[in-house]
Amino acid sequence: MLKGIDPIISPYLLKVIDEMGHGDEILLADGNYPVESAGKNHDSIVVRADGIGIPSLLEAIMKLFPLDTYVDYNVVLMMSEKGQPEIWKKYEQILDSSGETVRIKKVPRLEFYDVAAKSYAIVASGERALYANILLKKGVV
Questions:
Q1: Is 46 in contact with 122 (CB distance < 8 Å)?
Q2: The domain containing residue 80 runs over which residues?
Q3: Would residue 21 count as lying in a domain?
Q4: pLDDT of 9-39, one tens digit each?
């Protein structure tokens, strides 16, 4: 047992984010994202977080995770054809309160799949909101 780590972060997820290096990316995927096939096809590590929503995961991870400040963007969001997803407001609040320098890039769905294919890890969440996928690029401490 460790102090100060949100219990939402499983021991395996903690291990994975610790192993990540500068520039590695982690995808927090909603419940509709093809995590297993995407992970297997691209050698990404798949971490199960069934039943947990992405806002809770994002808040817990951002307490431990530095964002990359040496790039044009360090957060990538999947765009919807029907306007901005409501969940993005929660993400913006969490990211703004993290103390990190946040640079967001919004990309269309098919382009997002290409970008996310390079992820070090994919977290399979229980998030039900559509277009809720968010990619984080790790920085340095």
A1: yes
A2: 11-137
A3: yes
A4: 999 999 999 999 999 999 999 999 999 888 7
Residue 22 falls in the annotated catalytic set? yes
Residue 18: active-site member: no
Active-site pick, 22, 42, 70, 96: 22
Active site includes 113?
yes
pTM for the model: 0.96
Nearest C-alpha neighbor of 94 from the set 127, 131, 125, 65:
65
Q: Which of 24, 30, 33, 68 is catalytic?
A: 68
Rounded to 10 deg, the angle between the 54-62 and 87-96 helix axes is 10
Tell me the pLDDT tens digit for each residue of 107-125. Answer: 999 999 999 999 999 999 9
97: domain CATH number?
3.40.1650.10
